[in-house]
């Protein structure tokens, strides 16, 4: 009798063990992921063109408010009429291929108009900085007030000294 019970117990254990080895029943595949959102992240706000490395240059100089800049303006709208980089010197330590376009190569002088939003540039007024960005065509308003100044769309600013002296 003991042998019969042992055989029945072993048979039951083997059955449970073998049942656990079978793959689970087929499940429906997970739903597909939603498509990546593309396009303008802020509807109604025009986005700038992606940067062109060949038009990118780096300069050091002092940030100053432009003379005659409007006292009231939308600080979130990019403008090239509010700030200047004075005493500008071109930096040579830039990645290969930058500043090689005809527009960037033709840029000379020690004064530049800085194009960007107020919150990016205004904290640096009166400071010596290194600025890098892309050379652009001046806006109609900037071309009227200072026709011979090149415009740099600010992409990066690094404070070098608190003052320009």
Please describe what this structure looks like.
- The protein has 165 residues and is of the alpha+beta class.
- The protein has a domain at 53-161: OB fold (Dihydrolipoamide Acetyltransferase, E2P) (Beta Barrel), CATH 2.40.50.
- The protein is 20% helix and 29% strand.
- The chain is built from 4 helices and 5 strands, in the order αββαβαβαβ.
- The chain has helices at 2-20, 102-105, 118-121, 140-145, and strands at 56-65, 79-90, 111-116, 128-136, 151-161.
- The protein has a 5-stranded mixed β-barrel.
- The chain starts with a helix and ends with a strand.
- The model has no long low-confidence stretch (mean pLDDT 81).
